[in-house]
## 1
Amino acid sequence: MNRRLFFQLPLVALAVPLRLHAQSARKPARIGVLSSSSPESRSTFWEAFKDGMAKRGWIEGRDVTYIYRYARGDSSRFDALAAELVAEKPDVIFASTQSAALAVKRATREIPIVFALVNEPVETGLVASLARPGGNATGLTGASVETRTKTLELLREIVPKLRRIAVLVSPGELGKQDLRSVGLAARTMHIEVDAMVVGNQDELNKALQWLGGKRPDGVLLLVTGVITRGDVAKRMTELRLPAIYPISEWVRAGGLISYGVELSDNFRRAAEYVDRILKGTKPGDLPVQQPTVFELAVNLKTARAQGLTIPQSVLLRATTLIE
C-alpha cells in the first residue's frame, strides 16, 4: 500500500465537513428595504428582486434577512423611515425609487445603497457620474426624455388630434424632474402641458375632479405610491379620457395603455449589484446601468369602453395585450 496516499485520504475527507460547517455558520446578510408602498401591495417587481437574489445563492431566512420600511404612499415619511433603516445597520439598503434613494443618501454616506428606478442620478447628486458613481450609491436608471417622447408619440397615435395633455406627478424633486422631461418631449411635438402634483389621497381626489373639468385630450399619469390603480383607471374610463401610464400594472388594473421600463428586469439586475456589494465590491466602483428592456401594454377592453380604436401600428409593437 502507498503509505503517503493512506495518510492523505483522511485529511481530504475531513476538509469537506469543515468547509460545509463554515458555510452554514456564515452570518446571514441584512438588507434594508425602503418601499413607497405597503406590505399588502408587494409588487411583482420586488419578487423579481428576491428571485434574482435567490438565484445568486441568497436564500431568505438562511443567507439573507430583509428589514422592511413602508411609506404606505406618503413620500413625506421617507426621511424618517430611512433614518430607522440606517439605525438597524444593514449591510446594504435597497431603495428602488428616486425619492427613497435620496432619503437614504441623506441619512448615510457609509451604508451601500442600490436603486432600481432613478431618472436622474447625477443631477440629483446620488452619484458623481454614471460610469464612476463614487460614494455609496449605484443602481439602474429609469425614464429619460427619449422615453417620455415615445410615450407621447404613442398617445398621439391613439389620439391623432392630441394637442393638450394633463400630467399628474409626485411631489418633490422626482415630480420636478418628470415635468422637466415631459416638458422637453412635449415642446418638440407642440403639445401643451397642464400639470398637477399628487402626494396623497386628498390631492388625488382633487386631481380627478380637475381632470373632469379640464377635459384634456389625454392624460399622462406619473404618480407613485398613493394610488389605488383600479379606482383611477375606472375613473379615467368614466371620464372617457385616454390615459397612458409608465408601467403595465396600470393596464392590468384597467388602464388603457402603458409604456416604460420593464421594471422586473431592472429589479432583477439590481439584485446582481446587491450580490456583488455583499461579496466586497464597492458601490462607487459599479457603473450605473441604463434600462435595456421596455414594455408596451394595451387593454383592448378599456379601449372599447372608451370608444377608442387602437391602431394596428401600436398593436403590432405591444408586448402585452389584455382582451
## 2
Amino acid sequence: MPGSYTNLLYHLVFSTKERRPLIAPAMKPRLREYIRAIVLEEEGEFLEFDGVADHVHLLVRLPPSRAVADTLRMIKANSSKWMNETFRKGPRFAWQEGYAGFTVSQSQVPRLLTYIRAQEKHHRRVDFRSELVALLRKNGIAFDERYLL
C-alpha cells in the first residue's frame, strides 16, 4: 500500500520561566491564536489550548516530518518574542526551558479536550507541580524532582 498514514497526537505542557504568573487572563485568547498560527505554519493541526497564569497545555496533531522538539522550539521562541512586543507592560515574558510531551490515543481525545478546557477549575485545587508529577507518573516517565519544569 503506497503512502503514509499517521495520527500523531501530542499533549504538550510547558511553563513560564520560573513558573512566574505571566499569562494574564486577557492575554490568553490572543496567545492561543498566535500559537495556533505557529502550529499551522509547522503543518500541524491545532486541536486545543488552555492554561493558567504559569503554564499552558496544547493538544496538537503533527505530521511525521515535524519533530516535537523542533515544533516546540518554534512555538516557544516566537510566542515569547510576540508576547514581549505585544504586551510591553510588566516583567519580561519567557518560557521555562524544557517541556512535557505525551502521545495521545485518538480514543482519549474527548477526555483530554475536557481536561485541557477545565484548567482554570482544575488549578483551583491542584498546583502545577502536583499536576505535572501526576502526568509524568501516569505516562511512566522517570524524572528527578529537582529538575521539574
